[in-house]
Write a structure and sequence with these properties.
Elements (H helix, E strand, L loop, with lengths): L6 H16 L24 E5 L3 E3 L18 E2 L5 E2 L24 E2 L5 E4 L5 H11 L15 E3 L15 H48 L19 E4 L4 E7 L2 H28 L10 H24 L4 H4 L2 E3 L6 E7 L2 E3 L6 H17 L3 E7 L1 E2 L5 E5 L2 E6 L4 E4 L8 H5 L7 H11 L11 H9 L2 H15 L3 H33 L4 E6 L2 E6 L8 E3 L9 E6 L1 E5 L1 H4 L5 E3 L20 E2 L4 E6 L8 E6 L5 H10 L3 E3 L1 H28 L3 H14 L4 H18 L2 E3 L3 H6 L4 E4 L11 E7 L27 H9 L4 E3 L2 E3 L2 H10 L2 E3 L6 E4 L12 E10 L4 E8 L4 E9 H7 L9 H10 L2 E11 L6 H6 L3 H4 L4 E9 L6 H10 L3 E5 L4 H11 L7 E8 L4 E6 L10 H6 L6 E5 L1 H9 L3 H4 L3 E4 L4 H12 L4 E5 L5 H6 L2 E5 L10 E3 L4 H42 L5 H19 ...
Parallel strand pairs: 12-27, 29-40, 29-45, 40-44, 41-43, 43-44, 45-46, 46-47
Antiparallel strand pairs: 1-6, 2-5, 2-7, 3-4, 8-9, 9-10, 9-11, 11-13, 14-15, 15-16, 16-17, 18-19, 18-20, 20-26, 21-24, 21-26, 22-23, 22-25, 28-47, 30-39, 31-32, 33-34, 34-35, 35-36, 36-37, 37-38, 38-39, 41-42, 48-49
């Protein structure tokens, strides 16, 4: 919604500016104590209980009896005002004054203090001295003099330490210190610049000489490992692979000395700030009592201090190299790596202001060099002289041909046969050379100690902002709040560091791994460290060990447990590569079944023959492994910038502009000189609360702890907020929506009588049989043998489908040294010998081929049979057409439509003599085995839905989240499950798109009417309102739509993506990510890539911290997905609530400051402490305790700090608070008892802010502002749609009610010790006694040094003020509840829906074209879950734009 500013707004601003410029009074708009309500002039005030100065006398007998000191018997009263047994001669009189001449003559004794007197028509200090003397019934007394006659007042004159000459020790030390800072930086820069010029000239000459040498030998081709080092063309090298800029530096003795001196000077900055603060509390002694010079000097030092530390934080990564000499990399000792920082930014189409701010940010970052990540690492050399450095756990070696530092890679081969042939291992010399080029097989994770981690935590801009502001608090008599804020900041920093160190140590434990392992070197097996492994090594695999690297199996069979890496629930069988396999090796494709991944546990290692070992060839080590890449992503994650991360920059700019207004008002309305600067700086600090960043992340940490209680673990907290904005949720089917295992549901073989395949008669299906024993023998053998199941500790290992199928066969598996496996059928008669079947050759199931095959020897017939099992679509393509029943497609479709998981089995009987015997057969490839096969039957499994899947899918859909299925199963099975769980609403047509190879297009058919003619999807989708329709596609159709750039047209209409390979799942998720924030969940096996790719991935894994995705859960249920979104929405709403609360805190402070500057007042010190320490900190914490809503609403919380709803809430509440603040002061000025008792700031030193609080004006401001500070938290506590009801946040309700009760007590109660602690309805004890309020003698009351002597409000006014505060509370609550969140908001949302498309109907675009344009470009779904909308009719007939419920957009 565009926010327009009316011309009247600018007119009001102009009028206010003119009025402000036309006034000159102080206060500007009224005369203090000028006129009474009836218009008469105010008389001079009576100063009640004026505190008389101490009386000093030559003899205590001269003290009037009322103030004459007395001592116990035997003790003497001394000049220091104490009673002693004897008075030492070196005692300093209490009547002596600092900065004044020493007392002369006889001793001068102080009388007791505390004498007060009422002074009618008070006008001057001289009048007060006379009145004090009269009150003591003594003759007039002189002012303070060094040699009094008998009596004098002890009021010290202004200290006189002499004239400030600016050559005092403090100035000389400052000159030397800051001069040394300037000389160090400036002198080093000039020296560095000169040395680098010389180094550049020498480098150019060396490069030219080197270039000639290379030209002379350009025809001499040498192996890359033996290439000599080459020099770059310039001192900067651009790394092409990673887009890195590399600069070389060398150390210099002078530079090192300057760097050490720089560190000492940084500490000196802190020491001088402490010294100046100490001097402030000791009468400015270093500056001879000159307050103006001292505070002005402090301000200048504060600016230098702030700039110094800002520069230190901004350039901390470049700073070490600033004190080094940039040189050629042949001379370098260090390299500075500059790499562009990738970021994922989620932001809507920004308006011109946002775009301008982002432009300014880019320009500023570019100018300051902050647009890249800078890292400095040592530059080293190998034994052969090759230059290298280690960056982000990866070794980069300089290659002279490319003139770049790049990670070295060894090419071991392209095909499986290339790798399988490398069985002889490496020599020690080869291994050493490779080790130098790629580094050790060890991922070193640096975890700093606690002090270093704390220092890194503090090395951020906001900590600099916080601590520089706190220095002002310490300095300007606000040290109590300074200490409290420092404690809060340090505590939060400690907690963050402890949590981060725990996470880093967990990652370190996962990443760093060493062990001893047998390695084949120089033809012999040697036990070496796994850190010595290099690509090309041959290693021995042992059971119970952890795979130290990525490798391919050369011999033997291995069972690996990959659950800790991928979340795959069952161990995986790994088979050796075959030397005759000429296919390209793909470790994530068909080569996966022969690939060991680093970090997986070897459960079983079985040699192929008794006299051989289980061996593997190392292919990747270190960060080149799959685990290494994942660890690297965790250690160096891509920065995620959410929409409020972008908008908060503009918010801070707005707040700083408000701060500049406050600064101007402070100078104009309040005071001139240094006090105005201090007060304005305090105002800026309070406008931009130091707690603001914490408020935006506290919701994440609370949500993370709540998720952990639900067994959902998070390793990336910002992703929790993304979970709150999820619009599309993709699900794997098997194990996620359905139960973990499949139930064997029998088989449907070919009718034996029709399987001779002769003539024109096609075979037909026999009846469906549940028991394996009722099937033909060949079918039984195929079920018992066509799998990759193995035994480990009497437990079946393998694919869950294969295990279920083998168990149903009731055959027995036996390990055999001669064959791969031996299967023994159950005996028909107890004790009868059963003829075993031996597996002589096996090709594992590969997702890319969607099939597996085995060759078996049937000992009963001595025949060799080949069985091929796989997806029924794939087997159909492989089988001879004459072996397929005519109704093959219909039968398989019917079974799939019933939710069955269907596999096909084909058979071929082999004549060994015809293929060259067993030796010839062993040379067969997979393609040879899987050709000329005949269809034999169908294997049927039941895929049961989990009990809670449908319920939780319904919750997601009712929560406005589109659910999508991405499965490797068939489209019909996926459609059946989608209907069962409610993804596809009841009564909805489903059109299935499949690729027709003959027509070379995607053909759409109705899954319920497979024999009907193909359907025109365009027309079907245009009739959405009349006939609800969903789409489903197969993997082949998906790829065809991608290749023809048509997938985006149908993407948001496709509910089921079937027969998807792992790579296709990634593509599908990425396409959905273009349309909105997308989540993906799966079991972590074949879904690894999709889980990593999604904005929000949740792996259903038993590992507490999965490295596959940011979230993992051991609770394998869709309920975990619902809980994640529920907590994410609550966390996002809570973060925005904390943000709004602190923004309102700043705005209340701004109003308070404006009133304070106008009336030259200040709230009492204890009120400030209560606000900054107890109210703000505790309420910010309490706001974060709101619990997420129990149900998901069909709307997501806003993430926009400057969105319409956020602005309406904040601006409306600011206006309400201003109105009631103005109303309170307007009501105050209508009171007769207040007029002529106003605070006159001309009678006090406004730089002493603690003297400005004992009046009616600050008292009223304190009560109103305290109410607003407290109530702002309650206003934002309404649950709305994303959090539970306000009363369920017990901590906040208790704090809110407790604070308001205390404020009400302060307001309504008569003077009492508690209220007097905060200077509310209190006064000087004697004045209160005159008013009839006798407080307990033990209560400590601060004397009111004001003419009135108290600020006790009349009872009727107290009730009026309390009623006004109650009205403020109610007005704010009603506004937020009924206008911002309630019916007014709902009406406005319906009446003026947000136009996110920016387009109108018509405009030269036809209706259907316009609909397609919106569908393809603006990601409008055209549906509400459960039914579809006739969107075009609503859009064009009514002329309305799509509402929020019709769009997928980031709100």
């Amino acid at each position: 919604m565009a926010v327009s500013v009316s011309p009247s707004y600018f007119s009001i601003l102009l009028l206010v500016a003119c009025l402000l410029c036309s006034v000159t009074a102080i206060p500007r708009f009224n005369q203090v104590n000028g006129y009474q309500l009836n218009g008469e002039r105010c008389p001079l005030q009576t100063y009640h209980a004026y505190p008389c100065p101490r009386l000093c006398v030559r003899d205590i007998a001269l003290c009037p009896p009322s103030i004459r000191p007395t001592c116990d018997e035997g003790r003497i009263y001394c000049v220091d005002g104490t009673c002693r047994d004897r008075c030492p001669t070196d005692l300093i009189s209490l009547c002596s004054c600092p900065g004044a001449p020493a007392l002369q003559g006889a001793a001068v004794y102080p009388c007791r203090s505390g004498n007060t007197v009422d002074i009618p028509n008070y006008n001057s200090t001289l009048q007060s001295y006379s009145a004090c003397a009269s009150g003591l019934d003594i003759s007039p007394v002189s002012n303070w003099v060094p040699n009094p006659a008998e009596r004098m007042w002890g009021q010290c004159p202004a200290p006189d330490y002499g004239v400030l000459t600016f050559v005092e020790p403090i100035f000389i030390s400052l000159y030397i210190f800051y001069g040394s800072c300037l000389a160090t930086l400036g002198g080093w820069y000039l020296y560095k610049h000169k040395k680098e010029k010389v180094s550049e000239r020498i480098g150019c000459a060396a490069r030219e000489k080197r270039r000639v040498h290379l030209d002379d030998h350009k025809n001499e081709k040498k192996p890359s490992l033996d290439d000599a080092s080459s020099l770059p063309e310039t001192p900067c090298l651009r790394n092409g692979n990673d887009d890195m800029l590399v600069r070389a530096y060398r150390c210099d003795f002078l530079g090192t000395s300057c760097f050490v001196l720089y560190g000492v000077q940084t500490l000196g900055m802190v020491v001088y700030m402490i010294l100046m603060t100490y001097d402030y509390y000791n009468g400015y002694l270093f500056f001879k009592g000159n307050q103006l010079i001292q505070t002005s000097t402090y301000i200048g030092m504060w600016y230098i201090f702030t700039g110094w530390f800002i520069a230190l934080v901004l350039f901390r990564d470049r700073l070490p190299n600033f004190f080094r000499i940039q040189c050629d990399d042949t001379e370098g000792e260090y390299v500075q790596v500059e790499k562009d920082e990738p970021a994922i930014i989620f932001i809507e189409e920004g308006n011109s202001i946002i775009n301008f701010v982002r432009y300014l940010e880019r320009v500023l970052k570019s100018r300051l060099g902050q647009d890249v990540v800078v890292t400095t690492v040592p530059l080293s050399r190998t034994r052969l002289g090759e230059r290298y450095f280690v960056y982000q756990c990866t070794r980069y070696v300089f290659h002279q041909e490319q003139q770049q530092f790049i990670p070295h890679a060894f090419h071991l081969g392209d095909t499986c046969s290339d790798l399988a042939s490398q069985t002889s291992g490496l020599t020690n010399a080869q291994a050493q050379t490779r080790l130098e080029m790629i580094g050790a097989n060890f991922i070193e994770v640096y975890v700093p100690n606690f002090p270093m981690a704390l220092l890194r935590e503090f090395a951020s801009f906001f900590y600099v902002y916080q601590f520089t502001i706190l220095w002002l608090f310490y300095y300007y008599d606000y040290w109590q709040v300074g200490i409290a804020d420092t404690a809060v900041i340090l505590l939060s920093a400690f907690v963050k560091v402890i949590v981060r160190l725990k996470a880093e140590r967990r990652i370190q434990k996962m990443a760093e791994f060493t062990d001893q392992i047998p390695i084949l070197r120089d033809g012999t097996w040697q036990s070496l460290s796994t850190a010595d492994l290099v690509p090309g090594d041959v290693i021995q695999i042992e059971a119970g060990k952890v795979a130290p690297c990525d490798a391919v199996v050369l011999s033997g069979q291995i069972v690996a447990d990959e659950s800790s890496l991928t979340g795959e629930p069952l161990p995986i069988r790994k088979l050796p590569l075959r030397p005759d396999d000429s296919t390209c090796y793909d470790r994530m494709g068909q080569g996966k079944m022969s690939t060991l991944f680093a970090g997986t546990i070897i459960s079983q290692a079985q040699p192929s023959t008794p006299d051989t070992l289980v061996t593997a060839l190392v292919t990747h080590t270190g960060t080149a492994t799959d685990k290494g890449q994942l660890v690297k992503k965790i250690l160096f994650p891509t920065r995620v910038s959410f929409i409020f991360d972008e908008q908060i920059k503009l918010v801070i700019l707005i707040l700083l502009c408000c701060g500049m207004v406050i600064l101007a008002l402070a100078v104009w309305l309040y005071a001139a000189g240094t006090p105005a600067w201090f007060y304005a700086t305090f105002a800026i600090a309070q406008l931009v609360s130091p707690l603001l960043p914490a408020a935006l992340v506290v919701g994440q940490s609370v949500a993370a702890s709540r998720l952990k209680k639900k067994q959902i673990y998070c390793v990336d907290l910002p992703r929790i907020l993304m979970a709150g904005k999820v619009q599309l949720f993709c699900f794997d089917k098997t194990g996620t929506l359905t139960r973990e295992g499949l139930e064997f549901y029998g088989a449907q073989p070919i009718d034996q009588a029709s399987s001779n395949y002769q003539g024109d008669t096609l075979p037909c299906f026999d009846e469906h049989r549940l028991a394996v024993g009722d099937l033909p023998r060949l079918m039984q053998i195929s079920i018992a043998t066509c799998h990759s199941v193995t035994l480990l500790n009497d437990q079946f290992i393998g694919n869950p489908v294969d295990i279920e199928m083998f168990r149903a066969s009731k055959w027995t598996l036996q390990e055999s040294g001669r064959y791969l496996s031996t299967m023994v059928p159950p005996a028909t008669v107890p004790g009868q010998h059963a003829d075993p079947v031996h597996i002589i050759k096996r090709f594992e199931f590969v997702h890319a081929r969607m099939s597996m095959s085995v060759a078996v020897l049937d000992t009963q017939t001595d025949r060799v049979h080949i069985f091929v099992k796989g997806a029924y679509e794939k087997i159909k393509d492989l089988c001879r057409s004459e072996s397929l029943p005519a109704n093959y497609d219909r039968v398989t479709a019917d079974l799939a439509r019933q939710g069955c998981y269907v596999l096909s089995v084909a058979h071929r009987q082999l004549d060994l003599q015809a293929v060259g015997g067993m030796d010839g057969f062993r040379e067969w490839t997979r393609d040879q085995m899987e050709e000329h096969i005949d269809f034999m039957g169908l294997l049927v499994f039941k895929n049961q839905l989990k009990p809670d899947t449908a319920e939780n899918i319904a919750k997601l859909k009712s929560g406005g989240t589109r659910t999508i299925m991405i499965t490797g199963d068939t489209a019909l099975t996926g459609t059946y499950i989608a209907r069962q769980c409610g993804m596809v609403p009841a009564g909805t047509n489903v059109l299935l798109g499949d690729y027709d190879i003959h027509q070379d297009t995607v053909v759409w058919t109705d899954v319920d009417q497979p024999d009907a003619l193909p359907i025109d999807t365009e027309k079907a989708l245009m009739r959405l309102g009349e006939s609800p329709t969903e789409l489903a596609v197969t993997g082949k159709a998906f790829q065809w739509l991608i290749e023809h750039d048509m997938i985006r047209q149908y993407l948001l209409d496709i509910r089921v993506f079937a027969r998807m390979t792992p790579n296709e799942k990634v593509q599908c998720v990425q396409l959905h990510m273009e349309r909105g924030i997308t989540a993906m969940t799966g079991d972590g096996g074949n879904d690894c890539g999709a889980l990593r790719a999604a904005h929000v991935g949740i792996a259903m894994s038993d590992a507490e911290a999965s490295i596959v995705s940011p979230f993992s859960t051991s609770r394998r249920s869709v309920a975990s997905c619902v809980e994640l979104i529920r907590q994410g929405r609550g966390a996002l709403a809570t973060s925005l609530t904390g943000y709004k609360y602190l923004i309102l805190y700043g705005q209340v402070m701004m109003a308070l400051k404006i009133f304070s500057f106008y009336f030259s007042m200040s709230m009492p010190q204890n009120v400030w402490i209560a606000v900054d320490l107890f109210i703000t900190v505790l309420l910010t914490w309490a706001v974060s305790q709101s619990k997420p809503a129990k149900t998901l609403e069909d709307q997501r919380p806003t993430a926009r700090l400057l969105g319409p709803q956020t602005l309406a809430s904040c601006i409306g509440l600011v206006a309400i608070n201003w109105i009631f603040m103005i109303g309170a002061f307007a009501m105050l000025f209508q009171q007769s008892w207040f007029r002529c008792n106003e605070f006159d700031s001309t009678t006090v030193d406004v730089s002493k802010w603690t003297l400005l609080s004992k009046y009616y004006e600050p008292e009223v401001a304190s009560i109103v502002c305290l109410t607003q500070f407290v109530n702002n938290a309650a206003v934002f506590n309404f649950g709305y749609k994303f959090r539970q009801s306000w009363w369920r946040n017990v901590p906040l309700v208790l704090l809110w009610a407790g604070y308001l009760t205390i404020i009400s007590y302060w307001t309504l109660a008569d003077p009492n010790p508690f209220g007097c602690l905060f200077q509310i309805n209190c006064g000087t004890r004697s004045v209160l006694a005159q008013l009839g309020y006798n407080l307990p003698s033990h209560s400590r009351l601060v004397p009111y040094d004001t003419p009135l002597g108290h600020n006790v409000m009349p009872v009727d006014f107290r009730w009026k003020l309390w009623s006004l505060c109650v009205g403020n509370v109610l007005a704010a609550l009603v506004y937020e509840k009924f206008i911002v969140l309630g019916p007014v908001h709902a009406y406005l949302a319906r009446r003026f829906p947000v136009n996110r498309s920016g387009k109108k109907c018509g405009g030269g675009m036809g209706g259907w074209a316009f609909l397609r344009e919106i569908r393809t470009q603006l990601a409008i779904t055209l549906r509400v879950e459960g039914y579809t909308l006739n969107f075009l009719r609503r859009l064009c007939n009514k002329g309305a734009h799509p509402s929020n419920t019709d769009t997928i957009s980031i709100r």
